[in-house]
Amino acid sequence: MKFKSLHIIPTIFLLFFCLVLISSCNNESNKKMSNKEIIEQKVDSILELMTLEEKIGQMTQVRHFWDIRKNDVTSKFIGSVIHTDGPAPGNNAEEWQNRFVELQKEALATRLGIPLLFGVDAVHGQNTFEGATIFPHNIGLGATQNAKLVEKVARITAIESQATGFNWVFSPCIAIPFNEKWGRVYEAFSESTELTVELTKASVKGHQGNLSDSTTVMATAKHFIGDGSTENGVEGGITTLSAANVNERLLTPYREAVKSGIGAVMAAFNIYEGLPMHAHKKLITDTLKVGMKFDGIVVSDWKGYSRFGRHTIINAGIDMVMAVDGDLDFFQNDLKESVDAAKVSIERINDAVKRVLRQKFRLGLFQNPFPTKSLIQEIGKKAHRTVAKQAVRESLVLLKNEKNVLPIDKKTKKIVVVGEHANNAGLQSGGWTIAWQGGNENYKGATTILDGIKNVSEGTIVYDEDGTGNHFDADVAIVVVGEPPYAEFFGDIGHDSNELTLTLAKSHQKHIKTYKDKGVKVITVLISGRPLVVTNQINQSNAFVAAWLPGSEGDGIAEVLFGDYNFKGKLPHSWPKFVKDFKGNYGPNFWDNSIEPLFPFGFGLQYEE
Ligand code: BGC
């Protein structure tokens, strides 16, 4: 203890002295120094004081549970802590904040007192916190084509993330999905590069705003690059697109993200040109850092160090490593040995650390390292849910409306609502909702599609959860069908772990057919993370709505079905006609002119006004 305090005082004094010196120099000799230059000077002055262990520490990211024990943050000089699937940091937002305050204090107790970055997978709202506002997944936001709205969504996500203790989100995913079989199609905005560019800019602006404010967060563009364009849509598979295609279709959103000031970029799991993307120096360093002038953090993905080539990923340009699941000591020791053995240059380490420190200064963490208590009241508040509900309404795409069966007259005497997805917030929200792979239960603060129908309708509503209720005397059946929740790996069609197909589950197909065969008018609402092959079900339905994964405000759907609002959504993906169209590596999307979609990109009907 004594030793520790003796050790700390001179260094802190030295650091303080340097900072004072720098700022007084600024005042006297160069009044025109930009904020950027001031930050660079501060970064350099800290870097000069750092040992190799402290530098490697700053390059380390861990989970706050399982990966670390008490005082590890201090003794291993950890640079960043994340929350992802796993034990919640507490029972309420205050406890979440307290957990991160406690860890921040550990970081501030190190010799140099460098604050931590706290990261979270807030990919459609602060979706790891039950009670937060959960927005439609990006595919739904893509359908809105509304950049202003996407900016608002990101702004609210930033506020609610800060309110639970985070200053960094691993969002937006700006992939261009080339195959509907990929289990992360819904994490991306669209198959269109142009639309993705517009929404990426809005998302970065909304999340980051003025980065040093205590209500904004650092955003992450992910996953660099080719995550959504692997052959057969396999997560972490092989991308075989030409360099020209990568440049034009995939890199353009990154160029715009960088121009918008994105703070971080996450490397992808896939392989390109025979190399794991984590080790692809040409793309990470030459293209992203040098070519695009990206001066933020390139963070690895899960266990990137041990999985993709150890020190070679650092040489390729990875600045911070997600050293999770047993990787922490291995990463720190192995990188140190690699530097000692001159396999990694100290210049590369210095560059990585400077990038981390730079973002910590930009976020204002040295002045303001703790979350703001008063933000807690912002979580899931009415005004935020109103924006989420608007996003739900605008994301709905009307694919068919035979004889104007929609909008439903509110006075309709009897309506039967069919299907488990109609009354289950977990199912309507998809993966990355409360749990990593999502869940099939209602969660706090959410409303369901059935709730909305009950609110709006003036007639009798009966609910037939499993499609065996035989309410054939109903005037209308609203049949809500869809996919179960899934996330990365487990959501790939063709993955051993699931029975997902490109079509609807047989039982859900039957819901539609059962009511159709009995002459009831069928309005089908599809809850899915991607377009599915539902050509027969569209034919059998009188009206068909693609609702994607709306999130917590399921009741917003009824407001459009019953005509309080018009449909606005336009398809963010071309919609496939036949399963056989998926025989190619890259699915039947718009780049293959020989395959005709059932509906083209941008399709979407509206009520006549
Ligand atoms: C995913 C990332 C995510 C990270 C942290 C990875 O497996 O690919 O998108 O940000 O986990 O949870």
Overview of this structure, please?
The chain is an alpha/beta fold. The chain is 38% helix and 11% strand. The chain has a 6-stranded mixed beta sheet, with helices on both faces. The relative contact order is 0.12. The site of beta-D-glucopyranose has 7 residues, from loops.
Please provide a brief summary of the model:
With 609 residues, the protein is an alpha/beta fold. 38% of the residues lie in helices and 11% in strands.
User: Which structural class fits the helix and strand makeup?
Assistant: alpha/beta
- Report the β-strand fraction as a percent range: 5-15%
Please state the CA-atom Rg, rounded to the nearest Å.
25 Å
Major beta sheet, strand line-up:
12-17-16-15-13-14
Low-confidence stretches: 1-14, 20-26
Task: Supply the number of helical segments.
Answer: 20
Largest beta-sheet details: 6 strands, mixed
Molecular shape = globular
The separation of the N and C termini measures 75 Å
Mean pLDDT: 94
Question: What percent of residues adopt helix (DSSP H or I)?
Answer: 25-40%
